[in-house]
Design a protein that fits this description.
Length: 134
């Protein structure tokens, strides 16, 4: 009789182990399918973020190019005024225009510097942001 009781315990233990292994395999299969889906989702998010970063970078580059053109135009006008000023020593209006253009040039140079700094800050934040997503 004692044998029969221990035999039942052994069968019960074997059945419990079999069910435990089956549940473990099932949980592993569920986790594996979820992690495969996560990898695809992460890849899609990275592609989207990369595209947005490229668009924003192009926008900043366009802003920078526009400001650089304005600045070079002002610098060219300033040089022309300086040349004409050297030719005409008796022109007060040219002096006023020269000062005005110098102020504009300084302001535009400041804007270019600000845009450069913003562009660098944006690049740094995007690099940090991408690192967080991965």
């Amino acid at each position: 009789m004692a044998r029969r009781g221990s035999s039942r315990v052994l069968w019960g233990l074997a059945l419990a182990m079999f069910l435990g292994v089956a549940v473990s395999f099932r949980l592993w299969a569920i986790q594996h399918s979820i992690s495969s889906d996560d990898a695809e989702l992460i890849r899609k998010q990275f592609d989207l973020a990369n595209k947005e970063a490229m668009d924003e970078s192009a926008e900043w580059r366009l802003r920078f190019d526009i400001e650089a053109k304005k600045s070079s135009k002002c610098a060219k006008e300033l040089e022309e005024i300086k040349e004409s000023f050297e030719k005409k020593e008796d022109s007060t209006s040219s002096d006023k225009r020269l000062k005005m253009l110098q102020k504009k040039n300084a302001a535009l140079l400041q804007q270019i510097e600000t845009l450069k700094n913003e562009l660098e800050a944006e690049k740094r934040s995007q690099v940090i942001h991408y690192g967080d997503e991965l």
